[in-house]
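[job 4471] stage=fold_predict status=RUNNING
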Amino acid sequence: DWKKHKKTCVTLQDLRKRVLAAAAAADWREVLKWEGRMEELMEGREDVICEYILRVFCKAHQLAYCSTDDTKHSMKLIPLQERRVHLLGKMERFRDQADTICAVADNFLSFARREEAESYYKRARKVGEKHGFFSVECRACIGLGEMAMKEGRTTEGLELLRNAVAAAPLYEGNESSHLLNASRRLIEALFTTNAIDELEPLVPRYRDAAKAETRRRGCLCYDELQSLLSAAQFHEARGCPQEAEREVRALLDLLRDNEGALEGILGNCRGMLEEASSRLMILDPELGDEELIQSVAAQLVKLQVLMRQP
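[job 4471] inference complete, writing structure tokens
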């Protein structure tokens, strides 16, 4: 009946208020509760408002995925992002458009839809080249380079990753995340292909950039930890086990000294130490230093305990 409907019905004006308030509070559950009425929120509105509403629902799905690991949220992101790509191009917001194209490519890649991912990375690269967005060139080349490496196209993959590293310092902003990300991916690829000579200048540059990022942030940057593992791998590959052990001890010291600042990267830190244990001969139970192996094992237990804490 009408009276009952009037009591339970949420007007469009109230709906806007609820969705915007929930978005401001990062309450993804409340935002997504109203996704079925998203088209009403956008009907007859200017492109800038429509793009913002789409962005709100994109962010809600991203938060939902981070909280639940439910891939349906990543899948639902794709059509929303594609609509944003269209609107951003229409409004000539090409930087945001290119970043969103990369985000679509990342999502396609996460579902092993490689052809669509490659198409979007190449599209992003074209926008980046046209408008001089070096960060987009860097991000697209990382995506394309890693795809090529996984498909066995090593020469092409390495060239794309080198291009990403070259483009990263030309980024228009201040942050060094693009350089760190590109350097980390290229270093991993070079270890895979045993290109040790090329690693020699790259590993210390990666370490310096990571330390600079820690200083800029005022808190520990994960890449500073990763750079120590890369240095340990490099020294071991050069036949210098003592230098490799020194880097691992420095890594453990850095974890201990920054224990209170590891929230958000605990899983990454654990994975990194597990990777170190499996890759480094100096941490092999039959060949390595017993005291160092025990120290790594103790740190892994500590990280596991911290991950269980609320």
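[job 4471] summary: Residues 1-7 have pLDDT under 50 and may be disordered.
[job 4471] exit 0
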